[in-house]
Amino acid sequence: MKRTICCIQFDIAFGDPEENKKRVSLAMEEAISKEAPDFLILPELWNTGYDLTRLEVIADEEGIDSKAFLSELARKHSVNLIAGSIAKKSGHEVTNTMLIFDREGNLIHEYSKLHLFKLMDEHHYLTGGRESGLFMLDGVHCAGFICYDIRFPEWMREHAANGAEVLFVAAEWPLPRLHHWRSLLIARAIENQAYVVACNRSGSDPNNQFAGHSLVIDPWGNVIAEAGESEEILSAELDFNEIAGIRKQIPVFQDRRPEFYQSFVKRD
Ligand SMILES: O=C(O)CCC(=O)C(=O)O
């Protein structure tokens, strides 16, 4: 089974959801006309960027506006959409939430970033998620993660151990730690013997310059597509038949001994 994917790496307008909707629409038109992908992925917080101090005002109330907008795009282009994440307001809480739509425009899953990134003050403005990132889309077992989540191999492993064949990552990863971005993503692909499709943003905001370098990595850890630092539509073909062979050759999922991992007692 093969599927084509496109990462839409774009420069997010700071605190301007309407402008960002225009940018997403245009980039999607381009991706669809050039690549006709099965799956499209957007970056993290694409509606507001990291304008955290104004989230009370600009976050999307229950995600209603974004959901209508994205559902229509998925349906119109008949594409599966891993719609990065949005700032979503529910009562007094704001979450950093990934929205996933099928080709008919049905919202099939929401995943809110589990691990908040203190270095960028997320814990002051956002509430961490509580749900799993697992979902099934177009016959593929998928899992979604958001940026800092990639530093938590145990979280991603749980998803792979529960069947995920492709790990989608939406990010606003800063340029100074590009080396970590690449190394962590390659490691997550190798250890989980899964595809990693990671969509970062490009450009800068008042506080950070972002790395771009969206990546598609195969289950052997080979980088099969990589963007540069600027806006780019990155595409690749994923062949899910490769996974079974790799998992048979080095059967890490059978060889795990999780019963020992929790009960480890530190010796002096
Ligand atoms: O872990 C990192 O270095 C970057 C994480 C990040 O930028 C985020 O989670 O938004």
From TrEMBL:
<dbReference type="Pfam" id="PF00795">
    <property type="entry name" value="CN_hydrolase"/>
</dbReference>
<dbReference type="InterPro" id="IPR003010">
    <property type="entry name" value="C-N_Hydrolase"/>
</dbReference>
<protein>
    <submittedName>
        <fullName>Carbon-nitrogen family hydrolase</fullName>
    </submittedName>
</protein>
<dbReference type="GO" id="GO:0016787">
    <property type="term" value="F:hydrolase activity"/>
</dbReference>
<keyword id="KW-0378">Hydrolase</keyword>
<comment type="similarity">
    <text>Belongs to the carbon-nitrogen hydrolase superfamily. NIT1/NIT2 family.</text>
</comment>
<dbReference type="InterPro" id="IPR036526">
    <property type="entry name" value="C-N_Hydrolase_sf"/>
</dbReference>
<feature type="domain" description="CN hydrolase">
    <location>
        <begin position="3"/>
        <end position="240"/>
    </location>
</feature>
